[in-house]
Design brief:
Helices cover 28% and strands 27% of the residues. The protein is an alpha+beta fold. It comes from Candidatus Enterocloster excrementipullorum.
Length: 443
């Protein structure tokens, strides 16, 4: 009988083990995938791809116990060699090879040259070949930065007393209502894929006061645009005992400040690789919905066509306005019209035509929707009745108000949209590891 008592220390090294010349002159073993081979004749450079980056290995004929012609791109290998400082190498060191052991070989040559600095191919090709195209160092750098965004979101909210929750994605009824839901048969019952964790995160405010979740949400919208996905990752939080919806905006601002500092500190390499300039989030302007439309219309001469919503072009112009006038890449648009917000959005007591809600625009693209929610049982029943809704349809949700809820509010952030804008990409699919849209179900 054997017992497993934890992770076994392996004799192979990683890039982080070499920091500061720690292994200079030592013989080490390292594994990785062969990213590319530059054969110069008697000398060849074998570049290994590791999770943390590329490592330069030097093959010298007569000194390396291996036939270089047996090696191909995407072979996975374990190499043994001596560490030497080399400032021109990707990590500031190289491994002078003594031996190479092949762990696996590819069955076919690569369909696209992933070792190139840029994949000069169409987005369609990159997505069709996603398992391979993600091996390109710049492609995968996007998702390391996305990792940093989620990591920062989590760390900051933990520091603010939030509890992480996990809510169902198979639901009886979507939080937003309407027809843009994926319907499914749940053991003979009608069910849907969740559009939002809204009902559940509000429920959990009555349990933990402050909660958050990072999880997929689903929208059956037949949009085939550069800004829409049918499955995306939503960064949600909900907080109780607020004084106003401005508390929610302030929490998001603090979170963004934390995220940007984290990226600057721990993701310098990826930011430099993609030439990303982090935005200034020290102060974010906030302006009413109707005023923002008016400001953009007057400055850029665009007629207001829809008084109840922001069109994509308007979002761009509003983003441009606040960049030019305030130097800010972000702007909170507050007090959206009640008729364009869900039934649970709290109306403005000063003018019920508007709500105590907001969107956050980042360089002219909506990346967040949030606001204060109705917490009074009779008030939410009255609003549902006004909209012709049947309370019995969502009785389990209304239970939380029936038995008492604190003033609360929250938001949802589209992770892919936020990443897209941060990286200055033109299509949200560039910021989705395996995007799902109206035409794409695989890979």
């Amino acid at each position: 009988m054997e017992f497993i008592d934890g992770v076994k220390k392996k004799e192979v090294v990683d890039i982080r083990d070499m920091a500061g010349g720690a292994r200079e002159g030592q013989t080490v073993r390292m594994n990785g995938a062969v990213h590319t081979i530059r054969d110069m004749g008697e000398v060849a450079f074998v570049i290994l791809r590791k999770a943390q980056g590329l490592v330069q290995c030097v093959y010298e004929e007569g000194k390396t116990d291996f036939d270089i012609h047996e090696l191909h791109e995407e072979c996975t290998v374990e190499v043994t060699g001596t560490v030497k400082a080399e400032e021109r190498a990707p990590q500031g060191f190289e491994i002078r090879l003594k031996s190479i052991r092949i762990l696996s070989k590819p069955a076919a040559p690569l369909p696209i040259p992933v070792s190139k600095w840029k994949l000069n191919t169409s987005l369609e090709t990159k997505l069709a070949l996603r398992p391979v195209s993600l091996r390109n160092v710049r492609e995968r750098a996007k998702f390391k930065i996305q990792e940093g965004i989620v990591r920062g979101f989590r760390e900051y909210l933990f520091s603010q007393g939030f509890t992480e929750i996990h809510t169902p994605k198979i639901v009886a009824r979507g939080a937003e209502g309407g027809s843009n839901v994926f319907k499914l048969d749940y053991f003979g019952k009608k069910a849907e894929l969740g559009q939002s964790p809204q009902f559940y995160k509000q429920t959990m405010v009555g349990v933990y006061d402050r909660v958050f979740e990072t999880a997929p949400v689903f929208r059956a919208e037949k949009h085939n645009t550069t800004r829409h996905l049918n499955e995306y990752t939503s960064l949600d939080f909900e907080m109780g005992y607020i004084d106003s919806f401005e508390d929610v905006m302030a929490m998001e601002t603090g979170m963004l400040q934390y995220v940007m500092k984290l990226l600057e500190r721990d993701y310098k390499k990826e930011l430099a690789m993609l030439d990303v300039t982090l935005p200034d989030v020290s102060r974010i302007p906030a302006v009413r919905f109707d005023e923002a439309k008016k400001l953009a219309s007057e400055k850029y001469g665009r007629k207001i066509r829809n008084p109840y919503d922001l069109e994509p072009e308007e979002e761009l112009l509003i983003g441009r306005y606040f960049k030019e006038e305030c130097g800010s890449d972000f702007v909170f648009i507050t007090h959206y019209p009640s008729k364009k917000r869900p039934f649970y959005a709290m109306d403005d007591p000063a003018d019920p035509r508007f709500t105590l809600s907001f969107d956050l625009l980042f360089r002219g693209l909506e990346v967040t929707t949030g606001g204060q929610r109705i917490h009074d049982y009779q008030e939410i029943l009255a609003k549902m009745e006004k909209r012709g809704m049947d309370p019995e349809d969502i009785a389990s949700y209304l239970m939380i108000f029936k038995y008492g809820m604190p003033p609360h509010g929250g938001l949802g952030i589209g992770l892919e949209r936020l990443t897209m804008r941060l990286l200055d990409e033109q299509n949200v699919r560039e910021a989705a590891m395996f995007p799902r849209d109206v035409t794409r179900l695989e890979p």
